[in-house]
Write a structure and sequence with these properties.
Elements: E1 2-7, H1 27-41, H2 44-56, E2 61-65, H3 74-87, E3 93-96, H4 107-115, E4 132-136, E5 139-143, E6 157-158, H5 161-176, E7 180-184, E8 200-201, H6 203-213, E9 217-220, E10 227-233, E11 236-242, E12 262-271, E13 274-283, E14 292-299
Parallel strand pairs: 1-2, 2-3, 5-7, 6-8, 7-9, 9-11
Antiparallel strand pairs: 1-12, 4-5, 10-11, 12-13, 13-14
Helix pairs in contact: 3-4, 5-6
Amino acid sequence: MFKLAHISDVHLGPLPPFKRSALLSKRVLGYANWRLNRKGDLHSGVLGNLIDHTLATNPDHLAITGDLVNLALPEEIELIHQWLTGLGAPEDISVIPGNHDTYVPGALRRIIERWKPWMQGDKPVAGNPFPYRRDRGAVALIGTNSGRATAPFLATGSWRAQQDSDTSEMLQRAKADGQFRVVMIHHPPFPNATAQHKRLIGAKRFRRMIAREGAELILHGHTHIVSDERIDGPDGPVPVIGVPSASHGPRLTPSIGRPGARYNLFEISGNQGAWRCRQQQFGYGDGQQKISELADDIIAIAGQNAADE
């Protein structure tokens, strides 16, 4: 059995000291949003408690699906490097970028320089590592990048032809190797997942790829909500699972605001043709100040014959 933990949208805070000249860009809008909204919702203490709880379950691997920072300030990027170093060995943690990590031109290059040990394949390449593949026993982790620097007031992602082609090849090879394929992408790829200004541009291309090649599990972030959707695969529906922000404080009522911080723990067992995937969700329920188990389900994997699905 392989235990895979999934968190997203860390938005590590508080913001470190930085040069005010850095706000002479799109960052000035993000800074205003952080001061007025995110600063009150996202808490380092909540994140610390969630990480402690996650690691206490002894996962074999941790997937982080983007938005580790807020404004992609150089100081934030360095702070995340320190945070990741303390979190665990690069071979045990797979990271992909989100739109906040690639917030402005040049940010992607900087995060690759500082975070690359945690976001590259088993066979490192020079330059941009995306998409990458990591083999962990029967599980293939495929890390992609939908983050791009965008104009003010936009948080769109992008799924382009070259990454589509490279990811298709990785999915084919992992299937030939008999592996359980986990695709990590920041922006959710299913229809009507977000408002237009936050959508994944090229989502139809991504869905066509999955309809053609298949995957056993797709993990995403971006929306800061609980998400459990399906898109078409060659053998049936493919689960697409999202998770709330890892640093969001608990909400008082179910109807106001986004849910409190959570993580998903997937227990993957079996083999090709008979996979079994159990999903447990832990985090802050509405009105709760302590982390608890919030869900425990078996995920139906398309084309499988596991006896107790």
